[in-house]
Amino acid sequence: MSAELSPLTLETETELPERQGPPLPQTTQETINTIVHYYRGEMGRMAGWRDRIDRTSNWAITVVAAMLSVSLSTPSSHHGVLLFAILLISLLLLIEARRYRFFDVYRARVRQLERGYFAQILAPEGMPSLKWSASIAKSLRKPAFLMSYREAVYRRLQRNYCWMYLILLLAWALKISSPKISSNGEPFGHVRSWADVTENAALGPLPGWAVMIGVALFYVLVLYASLHKEHHEGELAHGEVHV
Q1: How far is CA 23 from CA 29, 41, 60, 97, 187, in A?
Q2: 91, 126, 156, 237: which could form a disulfide with 233 (CB 3.0–4.6 Å)?
Q3: Low complexity bias: where (predicted)?
């Protein structure tokens, strides 16, 4: 027989009775030690999410390289391999954008600590301010994303993925504009007109013109996102080194 759940199991922390919490730092040295350990913890979380972002980018680069190798090394391979590569890196872009939103939260806390505390220790400027600590405290009490999912997709697309999309587009255009190769290695079906290119672009039951229109619309969205400028720069306004 399964054990019954204790009533305390379903209670949230706000419903628990008020009790004495752990002691807060009482001296300057204790406060400094706390800030140093907290900084190390935030650096660890930021580095962890940065590693996840790099892994996704590496997967995308590997997919592009593998699909290009399969498509361009074999003359008889279908151009749909490159369209499938576009689909795969789009999925990886969406995954990376989600990870980037988490990374951006911890990166912002680290940068606020560095600007507001450590920079003031190394080279004081003006009067010390508590705005940075209040901002971090607010984020710790109620964590929230600092950018929308769409903005994260735009930023990762501008940093890395726009170049991958461009390489795949050029390879796809080369594939559908090249003559087909017979089993004995002789070229046939030479591309002499736009109609031949459209015929080569066909994908299963889809006619070539429909595939080309779909690719064109998709790359219009990629171009728009790649040239999009953010209304607020956030942490990017405090220096040129960013991710």
Answers
A1: 15, 20, 48, 39, 80
A2: 237
A3: 1-11
